[in-house]
Specification:
Helices cover 31% and strands 29% of the residues. A five-stranded mixed beta sheet has the order 1-2-3-4-5, covered by helices on one side.
C-alpha cells in the first residue's frame, strides 16, 4: 500500500455523517446522532491501523460536544476501538 494515499483525503460532512474520501475510494465513515451515539463506523480494510477511526470519532466528539457512545452490537474491532476511547478520558 502507498502511505501517501492516506494523507490525500478530504472530509465530507453531511447530516450525521463524516466521511474520508480520496480521489479513488472512501477511506472510512462514521454515522452518528446528536447525542454522540455512533450508529456505525467503517474504515476500508486497506487503510486500517492508521488512526482513521480515531480521527472520525474525534470529529464526532467535536461536532456533538458529547461523550462518544458506541451503539450495540459492537464487533471485536469495535471493542478495541472502545478500549482506545477510554484512554481519552
Amino acid at each position: 500500500m502507498n502511505n501517501f494515499d492516506i494523507f490525500n483525503f478530504k472530509v465530507i460532512e453531511a447530516d450525521g455523517i463524516f466521511m474520508f474520501k480520496n480521489k479513488n475510494t472512501t477511506l472510512g465513515f462514521v454515522r452518528f446522532n446528536n447525542k454522540g451515539e455512533v450508529e456505525y463506523i467503517f474504515v476500508n480494510p486497506t487503510f486500517r491501523k492508521q488512526g482513521l477511526a480515531t480521527k472520525l470519532l474525534k470529529l464526532v466528539k467535536q461536532k456533538t460536544n458529547k461523550e462518544i457512545i458506541l451503539q450495540e452490537p459492537i464487533s471485536p474491532l469495535g471493542l478495541k476501538l472502545l478500549n482506545s476511547l477510554n484512554k481519552w478520558k
